[in-house]
């Protein structure tokens, strides 16, 4: 269903011969600066990934946990700085613009890797939609449990139905999916950024308060959870691998692209907003450095303070660990912010999948009225809208599918770890390094070529280990999990 905007709101109706209002590609003059780009990166990146960092450090311990955060930030900074050079082709500061990650991969690496990149990108979009559904349900459950504990006492057995929360979330998403041009709503970016920052800061403040009150003396250690006390030796190994996936998810820069179209990791949208002079890649390199530094510092706060507050018993979602906290409304408000954030964030990641299938279907069945025909419907107070049968059915089925998978696999840390493993190596490391090699024509088997491939290979191993740990966690959880049961 698409609403038609009045002509006076359409940019296309503006007629002018003033070339100073447009860039070399015919689009409106870009006015973004280092400050705006840095702010966009920081506000967009800090999100639901911070919720699992305390748990991740608890599995790895002080030494490995903090080291992993630093290493992931350094790798992300390096590969992200390389990505800024691929906005234009063939030269990093001149030539045609690549508006998406996939366009850049196609320009530098060819058609096969372009398709391979699409598999990882769209797979990540679907997976993140499932992950956001699970996270929202857990946050709703945390609110219900918090209110229950404060009403009946800390020792009361309080439970919340994850499935019911997911069903309600799904109904809301089906409705939101029918909103026209949802991906163009600029207010969505502002709201999502505000909500993610709010619940992250509240989490940090709650952890500081818990530490300051000294109501408990949680145990921490250099190596994290102890074998024979907290976990078995096998659990220690698998959870450590899974923790790497959780950290990788936090550093997946797909979160940068709020107004996402078809690109993950490459700052296509952000570069699109930067002025052409100085060169976009020069400004974006600086913005990336600022963004990675600030987000890493924030991740350190969330992870380290969360670990100190809860110790080796740190919950998978550290905001869920403040179930009996006074005043209760603060915890409820933080979880409510997560819900609001992810209601919009789900759509941000679903819209590219919607459009991809709809565009493909129109090319496949151009004669089908069900697929291509638009029906004009007048709605009071909203004006005229266009309804398409295929669009309505397809988007509804997609929401049902992701919500069903979330009900079957409602395992927060396992799913985040798997998503982090799935995305980190190919999109954050492999493609940037391969494009860098192609762009600079680095000779095969040269010292630099070997070094870049060693880095890529090492990250591949880390991703495989993280995937293995997450899959093992899912398999273990499925042995005892029963769908459509209330969970504590």
Automatic annotation (TrEMBL):
<feature type="transmembrane region" description="Helical">
    <location>
        <begin position="392"/>
        <end position="409"/>
    </location>
</feature>
<dbReference type="GO" id="GO:0015293">
    <property type="term" value="F:symporter activity"/>
</dbReference>
<feature type="transmembrane region" description="Helical">
    <location>
        <begin position="185"/>
        <end position="209"/>
    </location>
</feature>
<feature type="transmembrane region" description="Helical">
    <location>
        <begin position="34"/>
        <end position="57"/>
    </location>
</feature>
<comment type="similarity">
    <text>Belongs to the amino acid/polyamine transporter 2 family. Amino acid/auxin permease (AAAP) (TC 2.A.18.1) subfamily.</text>
</comment>
<keyword id="KW-1133">Transmembrane helix</keyword>
<feature type="transmembrane region" description="Helical">
    <location>
        <begin position="287"/>
        <end position="309"/>
    </location>
</feature>
<keyword id="KW-0769">Symport</keyword>
<keyword id="KW-0927">Auxin signaling pathway</keyword>
<dbReference type="GO" id="GO:0009734">
    <property type="term" value="P:auxin-activated signaling pathway"/>
</dbReference>
<comment type="function">
    <text>Carrier protein involved in proton-driven auxin influx. Mediates the formation of auxin gradient from developing leaves (site of auxin biosynthesis) to tips by contributing to the loading of auxin in vascular tissues and facilitating acropetal (base to tip) auxin transport within inner tissues of the root apex, and basipetal (tip to base) auxin transport within outer tissues of the root apex. May be involved in lateral roots and nodules formation.</text>
</comment>
<keyword id="KW-0029">Amino-acid transport</keyword>
<feature type="domain" description="Amino acid transporter transmembrane">
    <location>
        <begin position="31"/>
        <end position="475"/>
    </location>
</feature>
<protein>
    <recommendedName>
        <fullName>Amino acid transporter transmembrane domain-containing protein</fullName>
    </recommendedName>
</protein>
<feature type="transmembrane region" description="Helical">
    <location>
        <begin position="160"/>
        <end position="179"/>
    </location>
</feature>
<keyword id="KW-0812">Transmembrane</keyword>
<feature type="transmembrane region" description="Helical">
    <location>
        <begin position="63"/>
        <end position="87"/>
    </location>
</feature>
<keyword id="KW-0813">Transport</keyword>
<dbReference type="GO" id="GO:0012505">
    <property type="term" value="C:endomembrane system"/>
</dbReference>
<dbReference type="GO" id="GO:0006865">
    <property type="term" value="P:amino acid transport"/>
</dbReference>
<dbReference type="Pfam" id="PF01490">
    <property type="entry name" value="Aa_trans"/>
</dbReference>
<feature type="transmembrane region" description="Helical">
    <location>
        <begin position="454"/>
        <end position="475"/>
    </location>
</feature>
<keyword id="KW-0472">Membrane</keyword>
<feature type="transmembrane region" description="Helical">
    <location>
        <begin position="329"/>
        <end position="349"/>
    </location>
</feature>
<dbReference type="InterPro" id="IPR013057">
    <property type="entry name" value="AA_transpt_TM"/>
</dbReference>
<feature type="transmembrane region" description="Helical">
    <location>
        <begin position="415"/>
        <end position="433"/>
    </location>
</feature>
